[in-house]
Amino acid sequence: RSAEPLLRVEDMVVNYGRIQALHGISLNVAQGELVTLLGANGAGKTTTMRALSGLLPLARGRIVFEGNDITRMRAHERVVSGLIQAPEGRGVFPGMTVQENLDMGCHARPFDKKAEYDSTLEWVFGLFPRLAERRKQVGGTLSGGEQQMLAIGRALMARPKLLLLDEPSMGLAPMVIQQIFRIIGEINAQGTTVLLVEQNAQQALTRSDRAYILETGEVTKTGAGHALLTDSAVKSAYLGVG
Ligand code: ATP
Q: Among the atoms of ligand 1, which is closest to the Cα of residue 167?
């Protein structure tokens, strides 16, 4: 049944106490897609990611992953099933080396064979040669961009079926942002399905198959990435033109 998307979110409502942060959002991600959830500060991007990861409960709605209802599944079980969130770059362990940080990534989903570990590590180092060069350096001494690479690399060590990326461009210089997005595109092209949450509309939409616009806890628009790039309302709100 290839019609079933990898991830299907239906009418998701999330509250912080008496404050409703998400008002019933629906979205889906098909196998192999790169989908962006685009939103300004406070739109509910991080809340969405935390709910998908199992860190916040739903007050209403459903999350279906690979055809299974995971709405009430615990966070670590979601990781085991292949729903992996890369933390923001600041989420790397500062006192651990690059190698140790990467090894933390496969804790929840251990490898059966040493050879699989080796080939996954080789894959990650191929995507991020900088991490290979710095494998013995501690995380805290890396640049912001390198820490972001390490956060993504660590998530890849868990071999995600769906990789959730929360604002990978946050706080990085334009050159570094471009580099990170190029690698995200490469990870997707090599077969990993990606759901990206971003404020950086230009880079994210350019690389995305599809995108959803999130505004104050509601999905207000959806379409192909390239179509939204030229949408006049999107341009004036997120691309600073028009
Ligand atoms: P940012 O890019 O600034 O992180 P965001 O799109 O990720 O923004 P969220 O952090 O998900 O937005 O916040 C969505 C809404 O929920 C906002 O109105 C925010 O004020 C509110 N909110 C977030 N965290 C809490 C909390 N712990 N308690 C109460 N309200 C919260």
A: 2
